[in-house]
């Protein structure tokens, strides 16, 4: 693990250094685990007390004056700086360029010389792999699919034909992108399959968690906008459109043809019905069931989901219900 001076870290995050600039930092840790040579952090007053009492050699703190013998870096957004320092001290190791001997690559596929193709990967006809792409192993890339520069695909990921992946995307293990959408029509007593002939398009800087599934469009594309972050175990149906920089948390399910705006947050286990829209910067609480469209900027919760203030009033009313029932029974018995 490389050493960094506190001055180098302050310059990296754009913070103001107070104390010895030559303090050596070998790691970063929370206050209860930090030791000599480590930097710890405190983004509010509650954590600041713990940081001051820690064994850390230096602190990363908000823009406020503190009294301590430890050197510290002041920064407006501590959590952002924390992320930058982690990336500096623990840079991701990228494997060397090359193609493993066990990989199976169609002669018509194109692989950049700087890419790494791990063991047992399969690239079908017409696949295109960009600069500095990493396919870790057992990755299946369907015909005519393309993967943009600096994207990392972890083991056992499957990309169905014609999938388009942007630049600097991270796709974690077990994810399936481009499988058939769930489309059937009743025909003389049985479910006739509607062929799913579209694809999936993933924008730049998207991250997709482990064991997530994104269905291809029935016609056209399922689209995931740039900068969106998708957690583990998420299901995204056919022809769904998710805008830029949205957050989709674990076990969310989005039914076909729904439109999710920019900077939307869908909390864990939320379910979104098909053919509805959720406006920009809307927030859906965990385990909510969304069956109506949500306007821009609103917070909804509950099942079925509704504006959060209304849902909270209903929850409070339900909590009072047992006492009301007792009062009602007491009133009846007196009669």
CATH class of the largest domain: Mainly Beta
Oligomerization category of the chains in this entry: single chain
Architecture of the largest domain, according to CATH? 3 Solenoid
Mean pLDDT equals 95
List segments where confidence is low: pLDDT < 50 over at least 5 consecutive residues. Answer: none
Number of helices: 4
Spatial order of the strands forming the largest sheet: 8-11-14-17-20-25-28-31-34-37-39-40
Which fold name fills CATH's third level, the topology of the largest domain?
Answer: UDP N-Acetylglucosamine Acyltransferase, domain 1
Structural class, by secondary structure, is: alpha/beta
In CATH, the homologous superfamily of the largest domain goes by the name: Hexapeptide repeat proteins
Q: Got a strand count?
A: 40
Distance between the termini: 80 Å
Main beta-sheet annotation: 12 strands, mixed
- Amount of beta strand: 25-35%
- Give me the Rg, rounded: 26 Å
Share in helix: 10-25%
Instruction: Characterize the overall form.
Output: flat
The count of domains is: 2
Keywords:
Udp-n-acetylmuramoylalanyl-d-glutamate--2,6- Diaminopimelate Ligase, Chain: A, domain 1, 335 residues, 12-stranded mixed β-sheet, UDP N-Acetylglucosamine Acyltransferase, domain 1, alpha/beta, 10-stranded parallel β-sheet, 2 domains, 17% helix
